[in-house]
Specification:
The chain is built from 8 helices and 7 strands. It is an alpha+beta fold. It has one domain: Class II aldolase/adducin N-terminal domain (L-fuculose-1-phosphate Aldolase). A 7-stranded antiparallel β-sheet has the order 4-3-2-1-5-7-6, with helices on both faces. Strand 3 and strand 4 form a beta hairpin. Helix 2 runs parallel beside helix 5 and helix 3 packs across helix 6. It is globular. The relative contact order is 0.15.
Length: 241
C-alpha cells in the first residue's frame, strides 16, 4: 500500500507495527534497535518512537513529524534517527518509506568496511543492483543523512559504515523486502567466501539482466535503474565495451 496514494494514517500505523514485529521476529533487529518511516499523504512523516522495541509497538506509539523534523503528533518522542529518514524522503520524491535495521550478516560487512558491489545473484542484480558502503557518520546526527547523498539518486539500499543497513522504497512492504534481500545476499556471499570462491556475473550477463529491468524491478517499487557497482552497467554514464 503506497502512502502517496490511497493510504490512510491508520492503515499505515498498523502496517508499520506489523513490519516492526517482522523485523524483530526475523532477528534483523534486537532490543530497541532499528526504525521505520513512511511519508503521509499530507507530506508529513510517520516514524517509530525512540527507545522502544519495534517488535512490541502499538499503533498509538508511532509519531508524526513535520518535514523539518519538528514533532507534530504522538505522546512519544520520535526516533533519534529521524534526520536520516527525512533526508532520504526529501531527496527523492519516489521514496515513501524507509527501513533501518541491523541485520547481522549485512552489518558485519558494514563493520568490516566491505560493500556488496559484486553482481552475484541475478534477482538482486535486477532489483537492487549493488549495495554501496557509506562513510561513517555518528548515529542520530545529520551526518548520517549527509553520508547518503552521493549515493541517494542511484541506490535503494545502503550499508551504513559501522552501523547497519538502510533501505528505501515506494512503500513499507517493499522497503522491508529489500532489507531481507540485502541480508540474504550478505549471508550467501559470506558462505561462498568461506567455501573459497565467489563467481560473479559477467558485464554482459548484467547488461542482459538490466534489459529486463523495467519488467522485473517494477515489482519491487525501487529506483528506475539499478547499477552494478563493479562494471557500472546501469550507470547513465556507462558505455559497454
Amino acid at each position: 500500500m503506497s502512502p502517496g496514494s490511497a493510504g490512510t494514517i491508520f492503515s499505515l500505523r498498523r502496517e508499520m507495527v506489523e513490519i516492526g514485529a517482522r523485523l524483530y521476529e526475523r532477528g534483523l533487529i534486537v532490543a530497541s534497535e532499528g526504525n521505520l518511516s513512511a511519508r503521509l499523504p499530507d507530506g508529513r512523516v510517520l516514524v517509530t518512537p525512540a527507545g522502544m522495541c519495534k517488535g512490541r509497538m502499538k499503533p498509538e506509539d508511532l509519531v508524526v513529524v513535520e518535514r523539518s523534523g519538528d514533532h507534530a503528533q504522538g505522546t512519544r518522542k520520535a526516533s533519534s534517527e529521524v534526520k536520516m529518514h527525512l533526508a532520504a524522503i526529501i531527496a527523492r520524491d519516489d521514496v515513501h518509506a524507509c527501513v533501518h535495521a541491523h541485520p547481522p550478516y549485512a552489518t558485519a560487512f558494514a563493520v568490516a568496511g566491505i560493500p556488496l558491489l559484486d553482481c552475484v545473484l541475478p534477482e538482486v542484480v535486477a532489483t537492487l543492483g549493488s549495495i554501496p558502503l557509506t562513510d561513517y557518520a555518528t548515529p542520530s546526527t545529520p551526518e548520517v543523512g549527509e553520508s547518503l547523498m552521493k549515493y541517494i539518486e542511484q541506490y535503494d539500499a545502503f550499508l551504513l559504515k559501522n552501523h547497519g543497513v538502510l533501505t528505501l522504497a515506494g512503500d513499507l512492504e517493499s522497503a522491508f523486502q529489500k532489507m531481507e534481500t540485502v541480508e540474504r545476499l550478505a549471508q550467501i556471499v559470506h558462505l561462498a567466501r568461506s567455501l573459497g570462491k565467489v563467481d560473479t556475473l559477467s558485464c554482459q550477463d548484467v547488461e542482459t539482466l538490466f534489459n529486463l529491468t523495467d519488467r522485473l524491478h517494477s515489482r519491487f517499487g525501487g529506483s528506475d535503474t539499478p547499477i552494478c557497482g563493479t562494471c557500472r552497467v546501469g550507470d547513465p554514464g556507462h558505455t559497454h565495451e
